[in-house]
Amino acid sequence: MRRRQFIELEDLPWWPQVFRDGVTDYLATSIRFTKIHRTVAPRLAAAIQRSGANRITDLCSGAGGPWSELLPELTTMGATPSLCLTDKFPNTRALSKLIAKIPQARFEAQPASATNMPEHLSGFRTLFTAFHHFEPNDAQAILQAAVRDRQGIAIFEGASRTPRALIFMLCIPLTVCLMTPLIRPFRWSRLFWTYILPVIPAAAMFDAIVSCLRMYTPEEMLTMARQVGDGVFDWEAGYDRTAGLPIRIPYLIGVPRRT
User: Is residue 203 left, alpha or beta, with left meaning phi > 0 and alpha meaning psi from -120 to 50?
Assistant: First the structure.
Protein backbone atom coordinates (compact mmCIF):
# COMPACT_ATOMS: atom_id res chain seq x y z
CA MET A 1 0.00 0.00 0.00
CA ARG A 2 1.25 3.45 -0.90
CA ARG A 3 1.70 5.86 2.00
CA ARG A 4 -0.81 8.73 2.13
CA GLN A 5 -0.18 12.00 3.96
CA PHE A 6 -3.72 12.67 5.14
CA ILE A 7 -4.54 14.82 8.20
CA GLU A 8 -5.66 13.46 11.54
CA LEU A 9 -8.12 15.45 13.61
CA GLU A 10 -5.75 15.63 16.56
CA ASP A 11 -3.17 17.36 14.34
CA LEU A 12 -5.50 20.31 13.76
CA PRO A 13 -4.77 23.25 16.09
CA TRP A 14 -8.47 24.18 16.28
CA TRP A 15 -9.59 20.66 17.31
CA PRO A 16 -11.26 21.04 20.74
CA GLN A 17 -9.12 19.94 23.67
CA VAL A 18 -11.93 17.81 25.14
CA PHE A 19 -11.93 15.63 22.00
CA ARG A 20 -8.14 15.61 21.72
CA ASP A 21 -7.79 14.50 25.34
CA GLY A 22 -10.60 11.97 24.92
CA VAL A 23 -8.75 10.23 22.10
CA THR A 24 -5.30 10.39 23.72
CA ASP A 25 -6.74 9.08 27.01
CA TYR A 26 -8.24 6.15 25.11
CA LEU A 27 -4.96 5.49 23.30
CA ALA A 28 -2.97 5.50 26.54
CA THR A 29 -5.43 3.07 28.13
CA SER A 30 -5.46 0.74 25.12
CA ILE A 31 -1.65 0.73 25.03
CA ARG A 32 -1.59 -0.36 28.66
CA PHE A 33 -4.19 -3.09 28.08
CA THR A 34 -2.35 -4.52 25.07
CA LYS A 35 0.84 -4.78 27.18
CA ILE A 36 2.95 -3.19 24.48
CA HIS A 37 5.55 -2.40 27.15
CA ARG A 38 6.43 -6.09 27.39
CA THR A 39 7.16 -6.16 23.68
CA VAL A 40 9.29 -3.03 23.44
CA ALA A 41 11.07 -3.11 26.82
CA PRO A 42 13.90 -5.54 25.93
CA ARG A 43 14.91 -3.62 22.79
CA LEU A 44 14.57 -0.24 24.47
CA ALA A 45 16.49 -1.26 27.61
CA ALA A 46 19.35 -2.63 25.50
CA ALA A 47 19.51 0.57 23.41
CA ILE A 48 19.50 2.83 26.48
CA GLN A 49 22.28 0.82 28.09
CA ARG A 50 24.35 0.90 24.90
CA SER A 51 23.94 4.67 24.66
CA GLY A 52 24.87 5.26 28.31
CA ALA A 53 21.91 7.64 28.71
CA ASN A 54 20.56 8.37 32.18
CA ARG A 55 17.41 10.17 31.02
CA ILE A 56 14.65 9.50 28.50
CA THR A 57 12.93 12.38 26.72
CA ASP A 58 9.64 11.12 25.33
CA LEU A 59 8.34 13.06 22.33
CA CYS A 60 4.66 13.43 21.41
CA SER A 61 3.69 11.90 24.76
CA GLY A 62 -0.06 12.45 24.49
CA ALA A 63 -1.60 11.10 27.71
CA GLY A 64 1.55 9.23 28.68
CA GLY A 65 1.40 6.16 26.46
CA PRO A 66 2.90 3.00 28.00
CA TRP A 67 5.12 4.67 30.58
CA SER A 68 3.27 3.73 33.78
CA GLU A 69 4.19 0.10 33.04
CA LEU A 70 7.20 0.55 30.78
CA LEU A 71 9.44 2.57 33.10
CA PRO A 72 9.24 0.00 35.95
CA GLU A 73 9.83 -2.74 33.35
CA LEU A 74 13.01 -0.99 32.18
CA THR A 75 14.19 -0.77 35.78
CA THR A 76 13.89 -4.54 36.22
CA MET A 77 16.08 -4.94 33.12
CA GLY A 78 18.86 -2.78 34.53
CA ALA A 79 18.03 0.47 32.74
CA THR A 80 17.20 3.10 35.37
CA PRO A 81 16.77 6.43 33.59
CA SER A 82 14.64 9.36 34.64
CA LEU A 83 11.83 10.33 32.28
CA CYS A 84 10.64 13.63 30.83
CA LEU A 85 7.37 13.66 28.86
CA THR A 86 6.84 16.29 26.16
CA ASP A 87 4.20 17.16 23.58
CA LYS A 88 3.15 19.90 21.19
CA PHE A 89 -0.27 19.87 22.89
CA PRO A 90 0.42 18.62 26.46
CA ASN A 91 -2.44 16.66 28.07
CA THR A 92 -1.60 18.17 31.45
CA ARG A 93 -4.35 16.42 33.42
CA ALA A 94 -3.31 12.95 32.30
CA LEU A 95 0.42 13.66 32.59
CA SER A 96 0.02 15.09 36.10
CA LYS A 97 -1.76 11.90 37.13
CA LEU A 98 0.95 9.76 35.56
CA ILE A 99 3.93 11.44 37.19
CA ALA A 100 2.22 11.21 40.58
CA LYS A 101 2.68 7.44 40.24
CA ILE A 102 6.27 7.53 38.96
CA PRO A 103 8.74 9.45 41.15
CA GLN A 104 11.46 9.52 38.47
CA ALA A 105 9.15 11.10 35.86
CA ARG A 106 8.19 14.68 35.08
CA PHE A 107 6.55 16.46 32.17
CA GLU A 108 7.27 19.65 30.27
CA ALA A 109 4.23 21.90 30.62
CA GLN A 110 5.23 24.10 27.66
CA PRO A 111 4.67 22.91 24.06
CA ALA A 112 7.74 21.10 22.72
CA SER A 113 8.69 20.50 19.10
CA ALA A 114 9.90 17.01 18.22
CA THR A 115 12.12 18.46 15.48
CA ASN A 116 13.90 21.00 17.67
CA MET A 117 14.28 19.94 21.29
CA PRO A 118 15.88 22.53 23.61
CA GLU A 119 19.10 21.62 25.38
CA HIS A 120 17.45 21.28 28.79
CA LEU A 121 15.35 18.43 27.36
CA SER A 122 18.33 16.33 26.30
CA GLY A 123 18.09 12.56 26.75
CA PHE A 124 17.48 9.32 24.89
CA ARG A 125 14.49 10.13 22.68
CA THR A 126 11.42 7.94 22.31
CA LEU A 127 8.26 8.20 20.22
CA PHE A 128 5.30 5.90 20.71
CA THR A 129 2.54 5.74 18.08
CA ALA A 130 3.47 9.21 16.81
CA PHE A 131 6.12 9.11 14.08
CA HIS A 132 3.53 8.71 11.31
CA HIS A 133 2.10 12.15 12.12
CA PHE A 134 5.08 13.75 10.42
CA GLU A 135 5.57 14.29 6.70
CA PRO A 136 8.78 12.71 5.36
CA ASN A 137 10.83 15.91 5.61
CA ASP A 138 9.74 16.52 9.21
CA ALA A 139 10.15 12.85 10.13
CA GLN A 140 13.68 12.95 8.80
CA ALA A 141 14.27 16.19 10.72
CA ILE A 142 13.46 14.36 13.97
CA LEU A 143 16.11 11.77 13.16
CA GLN A 144 18.54 14.47 12.04
CA ALA A 145 18.08 16.33 15.35
CA ALA A 146 18.85 13.16 17.32
CA VAL A 147 22.00 12.58 15.25
CA ARG A 148 23.06 16.24 15.56
CA ASP A 149 22.61 16.19 19.34
CA ARG A 150 24.09 12.66 19.63
CA GLN A 151 21.04 11.41 21.49
CA GLY A 152 19.79 7.86 20.96
CA ILE A 153 16.30 7.47 19.56
CA ALA A 154 13.69 4.71 19.55
CA ILE A 155 10.45 4.82 17.56
CA PHE A 156 7.61 2.34 18.09
CA GLU A 157 4.34 2.56 16.18
CA GLY A 158 1.00 1.01 17.12
CA ALA A 159 -0.12 -0.27 13.72
CA SER A 160 1.14 -0.95 10.22
CA ARG A 161 0.21 0.15 6.72
CA THR A 162 -1.62 -3.03 5.73
CA PRO A 163 -5.19 -4.00 4.74
CA ARG A 164 -5.42 -6.16 7.86
CA ALA A 165 -4.64 -3.20 10.10
CA LEU A 166 -7.22 -1.04 8.31
CA ILE A 167 -9.92 -3.65 8.87
CA PHE A 168 -8.95 -3.87 12.54
CA MET A 169 -9.37 -0.10 12.93
CA LEU A 170 -13.08 -0.39 12.07
CA CYS A 171 -13.52 -1.95 15.54
CA ILE A 172 -12.19 1.17 17.28
CA PRO A 173 -15.62 2.68 18.20
CA LEU A 174 -16.53 -0.54 20.02
CA THR A 175 -13.24 -0.66 21.92
CA VAL A 176 -13.59 3.02 22.88
CA CYS A 177 -17.03 2.33 24.35
CA LEU A 178 -15.77 -0.74 26.22
CA MET A 179 -12.67 0.96 27.63
CA THR A 180 -14.11 4.36 28.54
CA PRO A 181 -15.37 3.25 32.01
CA LEU A 182 -11.80 2.16 32.80
CA ILE A 183 -10.15 5.47 31.90
CA ARG A 184 -8.93 7.60 34.79
CA PRO A 185 -9.31 10.30 35.91
CA PHE A 186 -13.10 10.02 35.58
CA ARG A 187 -14.73 12.86 33.62
CA TRP A 188 -18.43 13.37 32.92
CA SER A 189 -17.57 15.11 29.66
CA ARG A 190 -15.85 11.95 28.42
CA LEU A 191 -19.01 9.91 29.05
CA PHE A 192 -21.17 12.50 27.27
CA TRP A 193 -18.95 12.67 24.17
CA THR A 194 -18.63 8.86 24.08
CA TYR A 195 -22.15 7.58 24.75
CA ILE A 196 -24.59 10.48 24.22
CA LEU A 197 -22.94 12.24 21.29
CA PRO A 198 -20.24 9.73 20.21
CA VAL A 199 -17.71 12.21 18.86
CA ILE A 200 -14.76 10.55 20.64
CA PRO A 201 -15.37 7.03 19.20
CA ALA A 202 -15.87 8.47 15.70
CA ALA A 203 -12.78 10.67 15.96
CA ALA A 204 -10.69 7.79 17.30
CA MET A 205 -11.70 5.56 14.38
CA PHE A 206 -11.12 8.30 11.80
CA ASP A 207 -7.67 9.08 13.17
CA ALA A 208 -6.81 5.37 13.44
CA ILE A 209 -7.66 4.75 9.78
CA VAL A 210 -5.70 7.81 8.69
CA SER A 211 -2.82 6.70 10.93
CA CYS A 212 -2.63 3.34 9.15
CA LEU A 213 -2.43 5.07 5.79
CA ARG A 214 0.34 7.36 7.08
CA MET A 215 2.50 4.68 8.70
CA TYR A 216 6.10 4.28 7.58
CA THR A 217 7.44 0.80 6.97
CA PRO A 218 10.67 -0.24 8.74
CA GLU A 219 12.45 -0.02 5.38
CA GLU A 220 11.26 3.55 4.83
CA MET A 221 12.33 4.60 8.33
CA LEU A 222 15.72 2.92 7.92
CA THR A 223 16.30 4.70 4.61
CA MET A 224 15.60 8.08 6.24
CA ALA A 225 17.84 7.23 9.18
CA ARG A 226 20.79 6.20 7.03
CA GLN A 227 20.51 9.38 4.98
CA VAL A 228 21.09 11.51 8.09
CA GLY A 229 23.13 9.27 10.37
CA ASP A 230 24.92 6.55 8.42
CA GLY A 231 28.37 5.92 9.86
CA VAL A 232 27.79 7.83 13.11
CA PHE A 233 24.76 5.91 14.46
CA ASP A 234 23.96 2.22 14.55
CA TRP A 235 20.43 1.66 13.25
CA GLU A 236 18.03 -1.26 13.38
CA ALA A 237 14.45 -1.52 12.17
CA GLY A 238 11.81 -4.19 11.84
CA TYR A 239 8.42 -5.42 13.00
CA ASP A 240 7.42 -6.66 16.45
CA ARG A 241 4.30 -8.48 17.54
CA THR A 242 2.49 -7.93 20.81
CA ALA A 243 0.11 -10.44 22.35
CA GLY A 244 -2.68 -7.88 22.64
CA LEU A 245 -2.76 -6.91 18.96
CA PRO A 246 -3.45 -8.92 15.79
CA ILE A 247 -1.17 -6.61 13.79
CA ARG A 248 2.56 -6.02 13.59
CA ILE A 249 4.14 -2.84 14.96
CA PRO A 250 7.07 -1.18 13.13
CA TYR A 251 10.07 0.10 15.06
CA LEU A 252 13.32 1.99 14.46
CA ILE A 253 16.17 2.32 16.95
CA GLY A 254 19.33 4.39 16.60
CA VAL A 255 22.27 4.62 19.00
CA PRO A 256 25.37 6.84 18.59
CA ARG A 257 28.51 4.94 17.76
CA ARG A 258 31.22 5.20 20.34
CA THR A 259 34.21 7.27 19.23
Answer: alpha
